[in-house]
Amino acid sequence: AQKVTQAQTEISVVEKEDVTLDCVYETRDTTYYLFWYKQPPSGELVFLIRRNSFDEQNEISGRYSWNFQKSTSSFNFTITASQVVDSAVYFCALKDGTSYGKLTFGQGTILTVHP
Amino acid sequence: GAGVSQSPSNKVTEKGKDVELRCDPISGHTALYWYRQSLGQGLEFLIYFQGNSAPDKSGLPSDRFSAERTGGSVSTLTIQRTQQEDSAVYLCASSSGGQASEAFFGQGTRLTVV
Fold first, then answer.
1. Which residues, 6+ apart, have CB-to-CB distance to B84 below 8 Å?
2. Which residues on chain B place their C-beta less than 8 Å from a C-beta of chain A?
3. Are the beta carbons of B6 and B106 closer than 8 angstroms?
4. Which of A22, B32, B63, B108 is surrounded by the fewest CB atoms within 10 Å?
5. How close A37 comes to chain B (CA, Å)?
6. What would the DSSP string read from start to end of B33-46?
7. Which of the pair, A89 or B70, is modelled with greater confidence?
8. What is the CA radius of gyration of chain B?
9. Which of A35, A43, A104 lies closest to B102 in CB terms?
10. Which pLDDT score is estimated for B1?
11. pLDDT above 80: residue A100
């Protein structure tokens, strides 16, 4: 069975601090896909990134970076120099071959960035 | 349309009534999902449609919940004899259908059962 764990329920930082959101996943498949979504106060989930199981390269997009480590089954998300607009709920999700198409989400991490 | 559209945005219903929630996916997307998000909680999978395949209904919490997708496009989630614990935001998403494809979400329907 597939499972995604986001152990951090809430994180509070001050603007310009760096923050890392943790995501640990479980799957028996060798082919799978990992995703991060952002849910701002408006409520609509926004896709941020997809990573497949064969590509362990880390990725950087502006202030956002993702660290994928198969050895520890983790796909962590770092925001550098956080801003108030980064305040949102962030969800990590997994899609594997045994549940074709079904996205399993973690419980989410509430990030609050204070000015 | 440009994105996933859900209607209504908000629905208040009396306990015991039936409700229908509608989802218009992105044109051309073959996969459609329904999730439920209770206040302060994560995303609970309800049902998944992929093309003409039989839907994955494994997440439906009871037989009061059902969903259909007509013509491979619009989907309706029906909740019969609503209960207060059904109060939540119901989110619809669609994707192009490939295993690697990301899902795009609608703005959700906030259901309140009084």
1. B15, B113, B114
2. 31, 33, 35, 41-43, 45, 48, 50, 56, 89, 91, 93, 95, 97, 99-100, 102-108
3. yes
4. B63
5. 10
6. EEEEE-TT--EEEE
7. A89
8. 13
9. A35
10. 53
11. no
